[in-house]
Amino acid sequence: MKKYWAVLIILILGLGYLLLPNEKTVVVMGTTLRVKGDGARLAIDEVKRLDRLFSRFEPESDISKVNRAAGNGPVVVAKETFDLVATSFLLSDLSGGAFDLTLGRNGNYRAIVLDSKNRTIFLRHKGMSLDLGGIGKGAAVESARRKLLADGAKKTLIDMHSSIAVIGGPWKIGVIDPREARPGMSSNLLEVVTLNDGDALSTSGGYEQPGHIIDPRSGRVANRCLGVTVITRDAAIADALSTAIFVLGPEQGLKLANKLAAKAVIVDGKGKINDNFSVKLR
What we know:
The chain is α+β, with helices and mostly antiparallel strands. It contains seven helices and 18 strands. It folds into two domains: 8-47 and 148-275, T-fold, CATH 3.10.520; 55-134, ApbE-like superfamily (T-fold, Orthogonal Bundle), CATH 1.10.3980.
């Protein structure tokens, strides 16, 4: 399952935002990571560390080792990897399989065997593999935020385009209107949302690479939505949830968002806007 990055722009609104002194930008996890505020270097180091665990393109990552052992036996992984795959499994169940981190002809999240006692992951079938692309960036952003909080950070924006987490606030975030968006071109805004301390946001949209968000249940292109933005208190949950809702469509998607106490704004396949912004985050 693929996500589409570069679907958000950050609005520089408010003098407090402009006065933050420390900003660093790097390329990691196949996208740009921008950290503005306290602890930028610590946040970047944490995202890079998790990329080395989560990337299926890094031969010695936990995920690559699990994939190579598919059909043969369990693999001991780091706690961060185990916990993220376990969270992904839960979200797959809650979404009825609309979110699925497995790939391959034999891929299905139900073929993942998790052993919490020994902290192992086993893929039952040869030819299947894991891809954390639909949740890994959000998980890295969330972990970076927690590292910064433990280090005493007071105000920070951690921005990976489609996955954002904040400390302090308020932060004004502009969400591109997917009905008018075109790759490589400036676009109008669908919404300006306010993120407060502890909030996280994720957006999924098909316009950057049309036709590449796949419904894992059918293998067909997901076409019920043009764009989905989710706000929760956990960036990993937001990341996976925006993808699941994109696949499910507005009716089922809003039910799932409500179940997880997440705010969502959904532009359906016909361009109609649906939201549940009245929901209260936990």
